[in-house]
Amino acid sequence: MGAQLRVYKRRIKSVTATKKITKAMEMIAASRIVKAQRQVTASTPYATELTRAVTAVATGSNTKHPLTTEVEAPVRAAVLLITSDRGLAGGYSANAIKAAEQLTERLRTEGKEVVTYIVGRKGVSYYGFRERKVTDSWTGFTDAPTYADAKKVAGPLIEAVQQDTAEGGVDELHIVFTEFISMLTQTPVQNRLLPLSLDKTVEESGTKGEILPLFDFEPSAEDVLDALLPRYVESRIYNALLQAAASKHAATRRAMKSATDNAGELIKSLSRLANAARQAEITQEISEIVGGASALADATAGSDK
Prior knowledge:
five-stranded mixed β-sheet, single chain, 5 strands, 63% helix
């Protein structure tokens, strides 16, 4: 067997092994998408009803609460960026990081200092490589987040909002994540979580146009808001983590399918080249045999004379 043909056969074997791996990863990602979609669907009713409750308290009282009151001249904003712990997902993390960069630039042009919080190793690596300051980060659960993970992320953020800016607190809390729309479409989004925009939450909770009932709050409306709003932030972050997980699995499935298809095309191309090399070798061998036979015939004819 010629050297060129051996090279082609080794490459075909290598690409075939890679194709098996990418196909398996595609199937794994597809199975995880279904579970992630179910979790997103299951978390929606809780978040919706919690939003209704927060809206009722905020609109049914005259209480000025730090989590619902707009600051006249905000000076510092927190941005929570959700990326992935792993790669092999096309431009999933890169697109989320790009959206966070755009949001950060916009906030800075508004005169606000930006403090960054990151979920996922990809985002941490991106900021670490560029030596950018990250206030806090979390990794290790982006593929299958739980409500406990959301609480762990939400805790420092809520504390930062409740603190005075002179003591390191923030006036606003923004979140950047990838929203799962369909198996083919996942879009990075930028949402402001705090201070709560009552008009927006009324619309999101489905109470727009309704007359919200008046309530008496015990022990006080402020205490009720103290209890409800952290749960609201946790539920929103949990939903964002689930959306991001579903989007990541969809991006992985799409990337692995593309890699599998490309591997198949490469195998076909290498097979054609291997066949051509084999045919060239056979032609060369036939030519050598014919040439040798012709030379032998000529030598025999010369000796007969």
